[in-house]
């Protein structure tokens, strides 16, 4: 074979291999325990679509759960790993490829490009298929605030409040982990349950059940050690914390783990539902 032809053939082959490799590398397969830049990029893309994943560069259990939720919301196979289709949807959330269609064998079969259809919107309104507006969220939260929750008699001895708060502060900086209920990582209600259990007080496991404890009172009547609740999804009670006094509360934040925040912070003020007085 002529040397020039060999060089031309080699260049074409190299271009084909390079193109194929680039396509594959553009959609890395990431799964539990993966680490590095691609994992950080994945977490950033999830955050942009309003999933509360913590950006760490580590594909931990929390990240896996958010990937599963994204796959569920977009009607993908729920594997918890980012295959090519999951990655493509994260990069371009406005389109989704139609499923492949198997055609009968035919020498004259013509390739048909994938059809593009609008991506289902996460948490869409079932009636009109669009994201709720800010005013709709405000209306939803107002309705949640107006609901009279289940209540119980205050049950926490006042002398235990300081111990509860002291225990809670020991875990400042502990990372948020979806479903976490130990110092390795907490979600919001798992954190409260753990702190109270360390002081021999049993709480239910979930925020909505914890909201059924104590008496609903305005913030000005809360005492340190009482509980505060939020509807961060604008649908129901979905977040909780321990009131510290001086308009502050401690909680396990999905973005920064266990920390202290102010109730009058713009974000928390927007989603705050009520405090529950549990001190007797």
UniProtKB/TrEMBL annotation:
InterPro entries: NLP_P60_dom, Papain-like_cys_pep_sf, Peptidase_C40, Peptidoglycan-bd-like, PGBD-like_sf, PGBDSf. GO terms for molecular function: cysteine-type peptidase activity. Residues 158-279 form the NlpC/P60 domain. It comes from the Bacteria. It holds the Pfam family NLPC_P60. Keywords: Hydrolase, Protease, Thiol protease. The keyword tRNA processing does not apply. GO terms for biological process: proteolysis. PANTHER family: MUREIN DD-ENDOPEPTIDASE MEPH-RELATED. Belongs to the peptidase C40 family. This is Cell wall-associated NlpC family hydrolase. It comes from Pectinatus brassicae.
């Amino acid at each position: 074979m002529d040397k020039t032809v060999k060089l031309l053939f080699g260049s074409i082959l190299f271009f084909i291999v390079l193109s194929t490799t680039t396509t594959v590398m553009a959609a890395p397969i990431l799964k539990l325990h993966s680490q590095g830049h691609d994992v950080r990029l994945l977490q950033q893309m999830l955050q942009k679509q309003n999933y509360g994943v913590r950006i760490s560069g580590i594909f931990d259990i929390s990240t896996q759960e958010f990937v599963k939720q994204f796959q569920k919301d977009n009607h993908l196979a729920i594997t918890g790993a980012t295959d090519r289709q999951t990655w493509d949807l994260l990069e371009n959330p406005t389109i989704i490829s139609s499923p492949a269609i198997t055609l009968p064998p035919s020498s004259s079969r013509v390739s048909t490009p994938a059809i593009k259809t609008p991506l289902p919107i996460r948490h869409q309104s079932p009636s009109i298929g669009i994201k709720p507006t800010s005013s709709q969220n405000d209306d939803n939260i107002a309705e949640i605030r107006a609901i009279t929750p289940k209540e119980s008699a205050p049950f926490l001895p006042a002398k235990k409040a300081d111990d509860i708060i002291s225990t809670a502060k020991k875990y400042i900086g502990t990372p948020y982990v979806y479903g976490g209920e130990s110092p390795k990582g907490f979600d919001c209600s798992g954190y409260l349950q753990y702190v109270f259990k360390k002081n021999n007080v049993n709480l239910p496991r979930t925020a909505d059940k914890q909201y059924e404890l104590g008496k609903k009172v305005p913030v000005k009547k809360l005492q340190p050690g009482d509980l505060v609740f939020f509807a961060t999804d604008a649908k129901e009670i979905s977040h909780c914390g321990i009131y510290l006094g001086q308009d502050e509360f401690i909680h396990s934040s999905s973005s920064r783990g266990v920390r202290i925040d102010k109730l009058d912070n713009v974000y928390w003020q927007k989603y705050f539902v009520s405090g529950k007085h549990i001190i007797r």
